[in-house]
Amino acid sequence: PPERKRFYQNVSISQGEGGFEINLDHRKLKTPQAKLFTVPSEALAIAVATEWDSQKDTIKFYTMHLTTLCNTALDNPTQRNKMQLIRAAVKFLETDTVCYRVEEPAALAELQKNEWDPVVAWAEKRYNVAIGSSTSILGPNIPASTKETFVSHLASYNMWALQGIEYVITQLKSLILSMGLIDKHITVEKAVLLSRLEEEYQIQRWGSVEWAHDYDLCELCARTAAGTLFVHLCSESSTVKHKLLQD
Prior knowledge:
The chain is of the alpha+beta class. Helix content is 54%, strand content 8%. The protein is built from 11 helices and 6 strands. It has helices at 42-53, 65-75, 82-91, 106-127, 144-154, 159-172, 175-182, 188-195, 197-206, 212-234, 243-246; strands spanning 4-5, 11-16, 19-24, 27-28, 38-39, 58-59. The strands form 2 sheets. Strands 2, 3, 4 and 5 form a 4-stranded antiparallel beta sheet that branches. The chain has a two-stranded antiparallel ribbon with strand order 1-6. Interacts with ATP5F1B; involved in the assembly of the F1 component of the mitochondrial ATP synthase (ATPase). Interacts with FMC1. Keywords: Chaperone, Membrane, Mitochondrion, Mitochondrion inner membrane, Transit peptide.
């Protein structure tokens, strides 16, 4: 959406029947489909309220990743159920960034091996699966049992968290990196760097377009961090003390 002039002074949260609500002055926030904006955890409500409170003279919706994710979870514009979300996430294994390798140039092939092999090995051990990699344009042949293991693992998350997981996967183009990030095996910065390994290699070799590279990198980090935070806040069962809002 285009930027909009800020029309409110104060942002607060309140607990309603369906969860925690966001108040802009005395107005309750609504979704694009005019549903009451209600989130499942107080921590997530505080994070969303902070996004709205940090807007200055104009509301820059494109900077409000948590709000966008909540809107998606509430409105479910694609009308997908839990299993459809899970299957869409697992399908990324077939084209996972860290599974596609090059043979030439040798320096890039070596870089991929050194940087990507450890995270693939971690995932294979963590989930007790076979993943592997391939230099074929068709990609690696992922066993059906591996896919089903990830289906079972993702089924342990609720619908809200799954929306966040899919969002992170689409940013990194990798289920493996996303799970490493959500499982706190790697940091956001590391996950983003690994997802952009070939691009970073080319930049080191040929240089970058001024400002554009840094902007893209910062945007990707922001979206990935927001998606990861969203997953954890949607999986959080405990509430945060109200005093944190004042702090």
